[in-house]
Amino acid sequence: MKTVKCNLCGSDDYRLVYSMPDARYSADEWFYVVECTRCGLGFVNPRPTQSEMSRYYPSLFYDYFDEERTYHQSRYAAESKFLLDVASDDHLLLDLGCANGDFPRFMQELGWTVEGVEISSHSKPISDFKVYREEFHAIPVDEPRYDAVTAWAVLEHVHDPKAYFKKAGRVLKKGGIFVFLVTNFKSLSSRCLYLEDVPRHLYFFTEETVTKYLEEAGLTLIRKECGNRIYSMHPVNWLRYFVYRFSKKREMEWRDIQFAAAYGADKRRGSWDRWTKGLHFFGSHPLYSVDRLLMPLYERYQLLAGKYGIVTYVAKRG
Q: Is the pTM of this model over 0.85?
């Protein structure tokens, strides 16, 4: 574990936002999410070193991309729409964090030439297009080459996002675009509901911090979309949060939602057993039941108000 300064402004002045364990793989390991008091960037501090990160990405992490193929195809179609306005005859794409290579292959079918970046040894081998197996900022390309660089839910995972932004600015052609999806640190889901995938998520962005990164990279923000067309971040426990905030006069802590986390994590039950225990669970937790019943309405409000937990940004090199 290593204590770090703010990646954006270099400050070592920060405040604690919340603490939580690795809810996915290692519940006995706890991490702290802090916010830089100077620029507002959120980050895990202290955090696992680069060499320690591989144990937080077991091979089953990449099984996700082979599940629910219909969903993923619709996701790739939604992602591809952000590239429709690229004015180039070459259409050369570099996809960061390409995992098993499925999104670049989708773009190949649309006529694009594609390359990828993927550092994990647990992802599947790719032989049908060029893949760089080092960090993006270290790949042996440092001149304007690409019409588009994409990073779908990638920048929150890297140890040095500033290096990624600056590299994107250098390898894009004039008029090229950098399209990236990240979580929204100003949303209730990211900031208060413990829905970030810590410690795989190391950084948490707002539009203000994204704009500063882009300016330093020579890129201009031209579009943002706050929504769930690609990934979703359902605001589970939103009602409980407000009850604790305004009735109990304190912030909701990780321990306050353990009953729900334990129920959701138990996938070993048979369908009948799960159904009967589910009825008992919801009957025993009426607040949680109302929370889930009304959650679609609150999620709709987040979408309409631009306060959803997922944002896609499009930046352009002038």
A: yes
